[in-house]
Amino acid sequence: MMLTNKSLGWQAAAGWLLLGPFMSLILGNPMATVLQDSVLLQDHGSENTSWGNESLGHTVFFSVDYQHVQVPFEITLWIMLASLAKIGFHLYDKLPSVVPESCLLIFVGLIMGGIIYGLNDKSPPVMDSDIFFLYLLPPIVLDAGYFMPSRPFFENIGTILLYAVVGTIWNVFGIGFSLYGICQVEFFHLQDISLLHNLLFSSLIAAVDPVAVLSVFEEIHVNEKLHILVFGESLLNDAVSVVLYKLFRSFCEMPSIKTIDVFAGIGKFFVVGTGGVLVGLLFGTIAAFTTRFTKNIRVIEPLFVFLYSYQSYLTAEMFHLSGIVAIIACAMGMKRYVEANISLKSHTTIKYFMKMWSSVSDTLIFIFLGVSTIGDNHEWSWPYICFTVIFCLVWRALGVLVLTFIINRLHVNTVTTKDQFIIAYGGLRGAICFSLVFLLPDFPRKKLFIAATTVVILFTVFVQGMTIRPLVDLLDVTRKQESAPTVGEQIHIRFLDHLLAGIEDISGHWGQYYWKDKLEYFNSKYLQKFLLREYEQPKSSIVLLYEKLERKHAIELAEAGQLTHEPSHASLLEQAEHAKEILILRHRSLQIHMNRSDSEHSSKEV
Amino acid sequence: STGFRLASVPQIHILCISLHFLYKYDLQGIGKLAVNPIGDRIISAFFQDGKSADFRSFIRVLAHFRPVEEDKSKEPGASEPINSRLNKLRFAFQLYDQDKDGKISRAEMMQVLQMMVGIQVTDEQLECMTDRAIQEADEDGDKALSFEEFAKSVEKLNIEQKMSLRVLK
User: Fold this and answer.
1) Which residue of B has its CA nearest to A479?
2) Using one digit for the tens of pLDDT, what is the confidence trace for A280-313?
3) Which residues is B21 bridged to in the sheet?
């Protein structure tokens, strides 16, 4: 029975899949307007609606007015196509484990691009850089920032920053200069590409892309530290690559470059980085403050989270600061206070909307990437393109090696050799490079750069993306330990926090725990009074985790309909009575607690 | 025996060099420790016997927090270095286990919870949380955590890195 369901579903999905693009083609095709003219009465002028069809003397019962709805119609159709493609992949269980989703989506995009090219005989629409940067990228970064596990992130922040900043600069200059060296070789006929152009190209190709990294690493489940290192690096290197890209681009247009300009560039980097963080924190604080007053209108609570985050992104982009860093700072900063202020339903809404939006964006980006590849935007040159790919790999590997060597000397938290390999191999390039290359000013070799970028992206996503999973298995990299969080573990974590803070005090050392303690003190004294609605006592993570687990347990009990329990340890089978007592006690305490704290919430909740 | 190089502990040496012995009130004078929820226990850990500690025993405790050295060759029969993972865990276990019976009883766990989150929750909730914490890790059903059970419950945590201070290398 399962088989027929699946095969039916597969056929249905395939059918829809093909229907979608054909509809879009037919309706978007210039031929369609001919069809419209011949069949129906056109509405005259843009202000008249299509209802007013009386003008030519007779009414028509059925008419098609595509122009009116064209833009939203096509957008919806693309999104539908993307989502149906996703259903299609997951119907066949084995496929996502062998081929990462991003590859499949690019492949679908390539097919679609091919169809459009074949039918229209001109290049399909290229993904507009504005659409990408303003609409498609923010949801993904917001999702990443909001659900970023803050403990491992801040524990490894030094390493992450080192990789992101120094590593990216190393890559940019390394790739740029070596490509310039290649261009000097007469045999390749590339001598017209100046050093500046090479550096400009390398500044956009060197940065690791968060979208690609996210979609590939999400499926391979490496250990938390490794994941946060690669992922954190891909997010934070935006600041560096933005500065370098804009710097080199402005250098291209300047007649002469003085040393002062170089120093201005370096200074600009600090401005962009810290400016982004400040903008993000500012909006985060305002968002947290706003949610303090939303007790009576719970329905629009989720909206504030999205609005303020998006606004922080746009504001940062407006000032030419790093939008990605801003939105991440905003999300991480406001999360703690907003979650304490909003209701449980709003929390669930935010979680699922964010996941949904980022998933749609992610899918659309890869499909558009595939579509935009087809066409005659490319100029091919074997040596340049091959060397670009080689240099990207080589310089990344070297950079990771050197930086890890430095880090392991300075830190207790060492990065093993296997981890290093995965970090170097996981340096995927993606849609950000692609959009940036289209934004380049028009100069003779632009098409070559576009071709090179496309090849690098396709190479990293397909080759590296597909082989990273078997490599992780082969090298036996430590995987993520999938076990449920326990209250006991959380108690021990907190206990050790306090212990280490105490030991640091005694030994007179201002280390990690000292600053964490200081921040907690500042938080409880000032911030919480200002940003939290019900300021009774700051809630420890132990209590929060305990409440969350109890809530989950109570829901399970309620769904089962009776007070049965599933023993989590074999030994509990002997202690059925004792466990049952505990459960009854917990259930009662949970009821009391929920009644007390949620009575105000539930009365005003919609 | 502690593994410290003499030159690398100047600041602590200076602290103790004037006082030949260290007294409890010296440590209690450190302001931050007073507001640390488990400050008292940390101080007591330095003073194994009575009210004073000499430099040697002080350093002995701090040696637990040295980073683990992986490339040390072990001679068979040599005792484990004081900053090994096992010894670090033993030190942490001792802080829980005040009556030194080798087990963290329910009462001891509740004491620790009381110190850390006592003001945020009611007594009944505190009891439930303690029960849950013990039950999650307790395998032999004696409602107390032995050292092995404790070690198992923290195996996900990276103890070698968490309980190490780089400056003590």
Assistant:
1) B156
2) 999 999 998 888 888 888 888 899 999 999 999 9
3) B54
CA distance A223 to chain B (A): 11
Give the single-character DSSP code of A479: B
According to the CATH classification, is domain B82-162 in 3.40.50.150? no
Distance of CA A494 to the CA centre of its chain: 30
Q: How far is A405 from chain B (nearest CA, A)?
A: 16
Best mutation site among A225, A498, A514 for testing chain B: the one with the most B CBs within 10 Å? A498
With CB atoms and an 8 Å threshold, state whether A506 touches B33.
Answer: yes
pLDDT tens per residue across all 169 residues of chain B: 455 544 445 555 555 554 555 666 666 666 667 777 777 777 777 776 666 666 677 777 777 777 766 544 444 445 666 667 788 888 888 888 878 888 888 888 888 888 888 777 788 888 888 888 888 888 887 888 888 888 888 877 777 777 777 666 5
DSSP string, A14-35: HHHHHHHHHHHHHHHSHHHHHH
| pTM attached to this predicted model | 0.77
Domain ranges of chain B: 1-65, 82-162
Chain B nearest-CA distance from A477, in A, is 16
Q: Which long-range contacts (CB under 8 A, 24 or more apart) does B30-33 make?
A: B30/A505, B30/A506, B32/A501, B32/A502, B32/A505, B32/A517, B33/A502, B33/A505, B33/A506
From residue B19, give the alpha-carbon distance in Å to each of B24, B55, B60: 12, 9, 17
Looking at residue A43, the DSSP 8-state letter turns out to be: P
Mutation to test the B interface, candidates A411, A507, A541, A574, most B Cβ within 10 Å: A507
